[in-house]
Amino acid sequence: MPRSEPDGNGDPAGRSRLLLLAMYRLTDRASGPTVRITAVRDALAERVDLDVVSGTRTERARALLRYAAGGRLRGLAGIYVESSTSLPGPIDLFFMALARIRGVRVLTYIRDAYQLFPEYYPTTSLKRRVSRAAFGPTMRALRRASTAVAFPSRGLARAVLGGGPTAERAILLPPGARLPDVAPGDPAARAVLYVGSLAHESSGGSLLLDGMRLARERGHDLELICVTPAHDRPPEPHPAWLRTVVAIGGQITDLLPEVLLTVSPRRRTPYNDLAVPIKVMEYLGYGRPLVVTDTTETAAIVRAAQCGVVVPDTAEGLADGIALVAEAPPAQLAAWGAAARRAAAANSWGVRAESILLALKTAR
């Protein structure tokens, strides 16, 4: 298992020792960042002797200073950094720069750039205005402190790096997929599964609810299962066909016998076009057809895998896509589901961990 501040100098069998610097508190409730980092941590720990430093800025600063003072940089094969939306702190940058001076390669994953996109980061407070102004300089400092940087998509690399050859050469590390042990889809299942917010406009929750109403009005007796926290739900009363649950990991897998298809209803916005939602990669592992709106990166995944239907970001488009899957013959449902599982296997967290190790080995 990974450890926070280990003793010794690595695995006795001779495995490389790597530090994962996670700019999130991994004990907090499950979220996109913590799901990703936990999955990366576990996959790396199967392959290397892994040290982990995580937490708030203050918690990380204390741990990193102890790590450096304890001589832990000696013999370290590399540092993989999972940056946060709230930007790194001075000690994060100091530690990364010190590691590079000591000859340790540093690969930094830049997960988002919300500050550049008003639909996700309206500057409605002084703190947000400061974060928006600090984003560019901080990203430049983060890049200087890193041997190489990685992004979930080419579009995000271009947004952060300003295009050009550097953005085109940037390493891509999109979210990975789990491969839970699940039974094949049941053509008689009558539930649509959505994981995410129903309250945030850019997430498409209202589109999905309207699309489900239309699909049901057209004669498809379907239920919508929404895995979403209480604060991300629309106000009561909810329609009888909407079931909201709080679930993570295996708890979501337990819902799959009821599920005919999964859905990603995001509206087309500048940010959504370049984002790769973790939930879409998770959906692949569930082995059910996907219905997704035509946001650039998500649509490319589904089209390449041939694992579902891409629709316009309208209620009518979602209703049409849901109806198409609901009316599909069992052979087509099985083909979509099998294709989703193949795509999940090709993009597993293990595959992502191998990419991280290769990037650290070859970074210049």
Structure description:
The chain has 364 residues and is an alpha/beta fold. The chain folds into two domains: 173 residues, Glycogen Phosphorylase B (Rossmann fold), CATH 3.40.50.2000; 156 residues, Glycogen Phosphorylase B (Rossmann fold). Helices cover 43% and strands 15% of the residues. The chain has 14 helices and twelve strands. It has a six-stranded parallel beta sheet. Strands 9-8-7-10-11-12 form a six-stranded parallel beta sheet, sandwiched between helices.
Helicity, as a percent range: 40-55%
CATH architecture of the largest domain: 3-Layer(aba) Sandwich
Count of individual beta strands: 12
Integer-rounded radius of gyration: 21 Å
Proportion of strand residues: 15-25%
Write out the strand line-up for the largest beta sheet, numbering strands in chain order: 2-1-3-4-5-6
Output the CATH topology of the largest domain: Rossmann fold
Q: Total number of helical segments?
A: 14
How much is the average pLDDT?
Answer: 92
Largest sheet: 6 strands, parallel
Shape: globular
CATH superfamily of the largest domain: Glycogen Phosphorylase B
Number of domains: 2
